Amino acid sequence: MSQGVHDFIIKHKLLNEVQTVFVAVSGGPDSMALLHYLLKRREMYGIEVEAIHVNHQLRGAESVEDEQYVQKFCTEHNIPLHTKKMDVQTFAAQNKTGTQKAASELRYQWFDEWLENRPHSCIATAHHGDDQTETILMTMVRGGNLLVPSGINVKRILQNGFVIRPFLGITKEEIEHYCKREGITPRIDSSNHSMKYTRNRYRQQIMPFIKSENPSVHTHMQRFQEWQRDDQSYLMELAEEAFKSIVVKKSEQSITISIEATERLRFPLQRRVIHLILRYLYGKNSPSSTSIHIEQIIRLLNRQEPSKELHLANGLFVYLSYDCCHFTLKPQIKEEQPLVPLTVPGNTDTAAGTFTSYYLETSDIPEDQKHMLHLDADKVVFPLSIRGVLPGDRISLRGMSGTKKVNRLYIDRKVDSAVRKVWPLLVDGSGELLWVPLLHRSKSAVITDQTKRVLVLVFVPCISI
Question: Which residues does ATP bind (predicted)?
Answer without folding.
Answer: 26-31
